[in-house]
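Batch manifest line 293
LIGAND: flavin-adenine dinucleotide
JOB: complex structure
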Amino acid sequence: MVCVPFEYTAVSTYDDAVRALVEHGEDAKVLAGGQSLGPMLALRLARPAVVIDINDIDQGQPEVAGEVLRIPALTRHRTVVDSPLVRQHAPMLSECTSRVGNVRVRNRGTIGGSLAHADPTAEIPCAALALGADIVVRGPDGDRAVPARDFFVTYLTTALEPSEVVREVRLPALRPQQGWSFHELVRRASDFAVVAVAVVVELESDAATVRSAEVALAGVADRPVPAGREAVAPLIGSSGAPAEVAAAAAAIAGNTSPDGDVHASGAYRRRLVDVLTRRALTEALGRARTSGV
Ligand code: FAD
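JOB STATUS: finished
ARTIFACT:
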């Protein structure tokens, strides 16, 4: 397929990107790694009049500031996977990013692009939700931080205004007594998830009682979604014993009503939520219990 003709412009600062977006409005598309935009252009699913290439923006490497891990939006998936800093402070992000596409996709694709693209079965948006990420966007009035829970609106749609660009992702660094897990089912290695589950749990200082549990799901709705509070609530204050974990996973699955498609029926997806959530909670609690060891 051949894409429709477009004007190409490259910028070297976020402010120039914003200026170009203000000038061209909804006729413009930002180009980061091109791993989703490229196919969409080729299939004519995207028909921008102007493509704004942000790859010349120099924005450094992931870094830790206080208890926050800051990852520049243009950080390639491969860098996220390979970074010892990310592995130490947000190991779930490293793990889920290693499942994105294949090595060629990970060499070019960016964390900001994956979040902005907002595929409801993508791994990184799901993990960002469970991790409580803030997505920092630059617009005509400067920066604003959008919590991941408010960022994903529906299929391929985010809270980004037409003149805004994703600049950075901020994640709370993993704390002692916390554990994490990411599980997904894919038809083939490198595919998007049929269903994915991301979990972060925290234990009380006695290391025996569950203080909090964040569970995010992909592949069950038009966007990544948090598990319902009431389904997770019985786990809080419990010991996280297998029966309690199984009850929470069943309740979380029972709260979903996924649609079926060519990859899986709705009922099969709901069953996957149950099984994968049980596995993920069990693994995350195990990691939390041994985190100080
Ligand atoms: P681009 O393709 O450049 O842009 C995607 C969209 O986001 C565009 O609308 C663009 O305008 C917008 N955008 C990009 N960056 C910004 C920004 N900083 N601010 C505002 N808007 C921005 N993804 C998965 O999650 N899981 C998979 O298993 C998976 N498998 C893949 C397999 C193949 C063969 C391919 C080609 C892609 C796959 N992907 C998968 C997609 C991949 O993760 C992309 O890298 C990602 O979705 C988009 O990142 P990008 O940097 O390439 O963005």
